[in-house]
């Protein structure tokens, strides 16, 4: 089991960038204690910008940071997928009420371009809402409006 002393020992040979990464992770962990967001959502700097009536979509944002990139210096595909899944899950709450619970049944993501820096925006639309299944689609763009990914997802209503 890791102790505070053991952790301090592990930190001794880290460079400045690695220390900054650890600091960001600790801050996200602390925010997740008091936030309704999970740790990974805090790490992504996940934000809800509400409902866009003109487009008929729920809008979300996340920040691409060095910690979330893969070895090719682009956003890791799993993080992109997590962003989309989180946007769709948040849409369930916003569209149907905070007391609603739903889980992902299926998520199909198409990666169209790499995300490398800045903020990403997800625009999520409810395609169909049935008694037990909610079908949604999401489009993710970068700060320049470039399409990064598209997705469709099916969510199962628990309550």
Automatic annotation (TrEMBL):
Domain of life, per lineage: Bacteria
EC number: 3.1.2.20
Residues of the Thioesterase domain: 73-148
Catalysed reaction, written as an equation: a medium-chain fatty acyl-CoA + H2O = a medium-chain fatty acid + CoA + H(+); a fatty acyl-CoA + H2O = a fatty acid + CoA + H(+); a long-chain fatty acyl-CoA + H2O = a long-chain fatty acid + CoA + H(+)
Presence of keyword ATP-binding: no
One Pfam short name: 4HBT
Keywords, sorted A to Z: Hydrolase
Listed InterPro entries: HotDog_dom_sf, PAAI_dom, Thioestr_dom
EC class: hydrolase
Family indicated by similarity: Belongs to the YigI thioesterase family.
PANTHER family associated with the record: 1,4-DIHYDROXY-2-NAPHTHOYL-COA THIOESTERASE 1 (PTHR43240), MEDIUM_LONG-CHAIN ACYL-COA THIOESTERASE YIGI (PTHR43240:SF20)
Record-given protein name: Medium/long-chain acyl-CoA thioesterase YigI
């Amino acid at each position: 089991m890791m102790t505070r002393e053991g952790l301090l020992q592990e930190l001794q040979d880290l460079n400045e960038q690695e220390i900054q990464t650890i600091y960001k992770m600790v801050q996200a962990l602390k925010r997740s204690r008091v936030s309704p967001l999970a740790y990974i959502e805090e790490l992504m700097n996940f934000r809800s910008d509400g409902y866009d009536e003109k487009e008929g979509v729920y809008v979300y944002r996340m920040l691409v940071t060095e910690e979330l990139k893969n070895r090719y210096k682009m956003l890791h595909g799993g993080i992109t997928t997590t962003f989309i899944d989180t946007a769709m899950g948040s849409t369930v709450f916003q569209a149907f009420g905070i007391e609603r619970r739903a889980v992902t049944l299926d998520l199909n993501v198409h990666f169209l371009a790499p995300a490398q820096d800045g903020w990403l925006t997800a625009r999520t639309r409810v395609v169909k809402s049935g008694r037990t299944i909610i079908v949604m689609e999401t489009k993710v763009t970068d700060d320049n409006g470039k399409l990064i990914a598209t997705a469709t997802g099916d969510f199962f209503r628990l309550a």
